[in-house]
Amino acid sequence: MLDYKLLAALNAVIEHGGFERGAASLGLSQSAVSQRIKLLESRLGTPVLVRMSPPQATAAGQRLLNHVQQVRLLERDLRTDLPAMDSRSSMSRLRVALNADSLATWWAQAISGWCSAEQVLLDMQVEDQDVGLRRMRNGEVAACVCATEQPVAGARSLLLGHMPYLAVASREFIARHFPDGVSIAQLPQVPAIVFGPDDQLQHRFLRQLGVAGEFEYHLCPSSEGFVRLLTAGIGWGMVPALQVATELRSGVLCELVPGQAQQVALYWHYWRNGGQLLEGLTRELAARVPRLLG
Questions:
Q1: Which of 99, 113, 208, 260 could be joined to 129 by an S-S link, Cβ 3.0–4.6 Å?
Q2: Is residue 84 pLDDT above 70, yes or no?
Q3: Domains (ranges, CATH) in the chain?
Q4: Are 139 and 63 in contact (CB under 8 A)?
């Protein structure tokens, strides 16, 4: 039988990014947590952690973390159905991964009522929509929003809708770089803005226009900062139409090539055995998100 004290130590180290912070979250010494991890590895006969900064779960560790996530959700169902078994606070914590653009646009409206009704505290991990599934595969989150349809083993995926992204820039930027009108062939030579190394939206947009090869770009890992750089005339970039509707109406930002939106599919991934809490959140998202995305 699994020793859940040992699994809790593993989960704390990964969740808090180190032995010291993980131990503090459990009210234990760093040495005690280290001993629990070693005992877990001894019983399994295989490492569960890669000792690096921050520590990373091995394949065996990821399996155990996935199990811990699902057990916690099922225990929450038991506390709901049998309140006498646990006198602690009824607030539950749910760890999810989502992309920064969803967090900056529709996410708050979609989950605010559900969080209040269910007394849930969310621990939100921000990842690019193309890579958020890694967090779930690694056992770090119970659910995620990402652009990939295929779920990991033991999980389901649900299409929430499509978020249109537009290539935009400020009037000043367009006038400075394209005085005679936007030239698609010249786009790779003017500065773009890219969210991070995993952001491929600008790359796909250029390929959609028939432009191949490298291009110049700034890196800005902030959804709000991304828009501020655009309005300041520092570069052009792909942003959700929802996020810049006001700027487009006022003329602060303009589409570079009208009619060439990138439609990004957003999928909700969640554990199949995640219990009533995840099922309820899934129903809430399925009902609300399509309307919010328009």
A1: 99
A2: no
A3: 163-262 (3.40.190.10)
A4: yes
